[in-house]
């Protein structure tokens, strides 16, 4: 008997694998694939033995991989505090921070830590699935439980290196540096104007982390099906449906790496909805003949028109591709709004413009499906999708308006409807023409931005208002706004501007105000009735909304409100925040390591001093 890894045997196996791959990529369905294989981990005849549909789907042989968030942690230094910091007590965290500072040749680290204008903080970030090198991600910042720091207001997070940490063999293990974090800290209390001591010492740096590596996604072949043949066959089936371009060369999205792993590139149309992408990929049929596909389309048409099975049917139809357009378009004419939505959502990811009107209507009328409808519109390239998103900017719902703004910005940040202005490199201000009631949206995740919805949002000339501790606003006799900065032992600085809100915000920033100062001003103006506009913070979905399916006028309230399973899908990445919101963690759970190469030097804001000079 020939040894498994003898030269001849290995050559024969390689030749067989190459022949298999060649036949698969050319679409061949010869008897080779109908023969039984007892040593490859799967009997290929089983691929066509589904008693219901006559096909097997990718999901029957695989499970998603790389779809979770990766937690990164560090200990760091915040500077620029106005005597609200503290000297950290002796601890492993303090020693680690001192060691980190010494790697940067910081002079007198203990002297710096003792300053009331600095504080030791714990830093955490979450790398999302599919993150690419260079992407910006939020950073969570908080002081340890035993710290005497009272506020992180006006703080600046000095550059810190974030790593993944795990407990292995009862010991803490750290990986390589995955991200660098730095930037202005927006303390949590800034968004609600409270004096809550906990929210005073917690905050985040919006977009403060730069990912240093890209995260791969893929499919793990189930243990009972491990084989090169299986992974190659599954990858070939996926590549027959999805492809991308790499340097102008057409390439399938699936690459079999091992007998139990297939790497997936993300198709551009699904970049804001990776959860759906994975579900569609796993709904692709393996080795389906043209005749079998025609039969399956008929069965899927019946399921699509049944609200209880419409979600799954739409996914399979989307996985089939353009051949399913006709069936899905019939779903658009269904009297059931749920069926119409699922058909439209699938058509949107097939870039069929007929989906736009139904998705726009769903976004306006159904709060539980709104996020999926708007994300699907953002994935379309047709002008009809842009038109529907534009109309949503005028509805009364704050979250619908902001979601439409996010979708339009994702499609094209330079779109005249949503294009903003960067103020002093700190945050963006967007003025959006909207016929709805005046609305101001403040972001506390992803990026620092203020979105002003309204045609002419103005500030009523106030008696006086404050933007932070050093900037005051008041009206003059001509209805203009005087913005003045008071600094001890310096001459006052003053700007006079119109009451147009955008100009007032620009004046505050020109005099040295930051994002938190502008938020403070907006809250004071609203409380004083000097601003006739709603102010909303992070109008994003929290997840878990239940779709309520109406069962007719004669049904009981319990029946009408019953949660109907089958339609739910992961929250689109376009609106999904990391899983950290509201999470509590003890000090002992935050871990770190300092053994890493020195990051490249850069200039710091002069008002915060120099890290490298140790000032």
Oligomer: single chain
The number of helices is 17
Range of helix content = 25-40%
Query: How would you classify the helix and strand content by structural class?
Result: alpha+beta
Radius of gyration: 28 Å
Percent of residues in beta strands: 15-25%
Terminal-residue CA separation: 75 Å
Widest sheet: strand ordering: 3-4-5-9-7-6
Q: Largest beta sheet, briefly? A: 6 strands, antiparallel, barrel
What does this structure look like?
This protein is of the alpha+beta class and 615 residues long. The chain is flat and about 85 Å long. The strands form six sheets. It has a six-stranded antiparallel barrel with strand order 3-4-5-9-7-6. The chain has a five-stranded mixed beta sheet with strand order 16-17-19-18-24, sandwiched between helices. Strands 2-10-14-13 form a four-stranded antiparallel beta sheet, with helices on one face. The model is unreliable at 1-51, 551-567 and 581-615 (pLDDT under 50). The protein contains 17 helices and 24 strands.
């Amino acid at each position: 008997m020939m040894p498994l890894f003898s030269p001849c045997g290995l050559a024969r196996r390689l030749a067989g694998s190459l022949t298999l791959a060649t036949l698969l990529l050319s679409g061949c369905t010869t008897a080779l694939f109908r023969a039984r294989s007892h040593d490859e981990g799967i009997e290929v005849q089983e691929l066509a033995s589904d008693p219901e549909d006559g096909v097997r789907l990718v999901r029957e042989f695989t499970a998603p991989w790389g779809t979770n968030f990766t937690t990164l942690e560090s200990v760091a230094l915040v500077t620029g505090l106005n005597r609200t910091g503290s000297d950290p007590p002796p601890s492993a965290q303090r020693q680690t921070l001192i060691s980190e500072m010494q790697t940067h040749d910081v002079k007198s680290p203990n002297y710096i830590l003792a300053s009331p204008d600095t504080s030791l903080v714990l830093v955490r970030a979450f790398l999302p699935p599919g993150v690419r090198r260079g992407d910006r991600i939020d950073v969570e910042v908080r002081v340890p439980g035993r710290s005497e720091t009272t506020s992180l207001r006006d703080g600046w997070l000095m550059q810190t290196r974030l790593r993944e940490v795990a407990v292995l063999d009862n010991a803490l293990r750290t990986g390589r540096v995955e991200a660098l974090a730095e930037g202005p800290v927006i303390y949590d209390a800034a968004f609600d104007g409270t004096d809550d001591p906990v929210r005073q010492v917690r905050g985040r740096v919006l977009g403060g982390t730069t990912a240093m590596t890209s995260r791969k996604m893929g499919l793990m072949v189930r243990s009972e099906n491990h084989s090169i043949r299986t992974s190659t066959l599954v990858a070939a089936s996926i590549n027959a449906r999805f492809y991308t371009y790499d340097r102008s060369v057409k390439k399938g999205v699936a690459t079999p790496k091992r007998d139990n792993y297939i790497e997936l590139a993300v198709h551009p149309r699904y970049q804001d909805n990776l959860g759906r992408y994975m579900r569609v990929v796993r709904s692709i049929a393996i080795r389906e003949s043209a005749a079998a596909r025609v039969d399956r389309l008929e069965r899927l048409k019946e399921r699509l028109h049944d609200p209880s099975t419409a979600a799954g049917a739409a996914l399979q139809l989307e996985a089939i591709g353009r051949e399913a357009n006709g069936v899905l378009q019939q779903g658009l004419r269904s009297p059931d709004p749920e069926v119409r939505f699922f058909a439209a959502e699938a058509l949107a990811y097939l870039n069929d413009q007929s989906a736009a009107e139904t998705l726009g209507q769903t976004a306006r009328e159904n709060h539980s499906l709104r996020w999926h409808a708007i994300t699907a519109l953002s994935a379309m390239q047709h002008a009809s999708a842009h038109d529907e998103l534009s109309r949503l900017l005028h509805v009364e719902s704050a979250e619908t308006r902001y979601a439409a703004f996010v979708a339009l910005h994702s499609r094209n940040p330079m779109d005249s409807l949503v294009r903003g202005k960067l103020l002093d490199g700190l945050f963006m201000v967007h003025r959006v023409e909207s016929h709805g009631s005046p609305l101001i949206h403040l972001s506390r995740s992803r990026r620092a931005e203020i979105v002003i919805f309204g045609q002419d949002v103005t500030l009523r000339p106030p008696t006086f208002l404050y933007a932070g501790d050093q900037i005051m606003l008041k009206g003059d006799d001509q209805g203009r706004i005087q913005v003045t900065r008071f600094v001890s032992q310096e001459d006052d600085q003053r700007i006079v501007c119109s009451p147009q809100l955008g100009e007032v915000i620009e004046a505050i920033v020109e005099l040295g105000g930051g994002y938190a100062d502008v938020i403070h001003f907006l809250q004071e103006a609203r409380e004083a009735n000097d601003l006739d506009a709603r102010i909303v913070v992070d109008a994003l979905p929290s997840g878990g909304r239940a779709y309520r399916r109406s069962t007719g006028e004669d049904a009981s309230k319990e029946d009408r409100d019953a949660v109907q399973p089958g339609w739910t899908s992961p929250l689109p990445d376009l609106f999904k925040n990391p899983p950290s919101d509201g999470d509590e963690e003890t000090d002992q759970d935050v871990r770190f390591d300092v053994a890493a190469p020195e990051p490249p030097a850069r200039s710091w804001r002069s008002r915060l001093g120099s890290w490298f000079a140790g000032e």
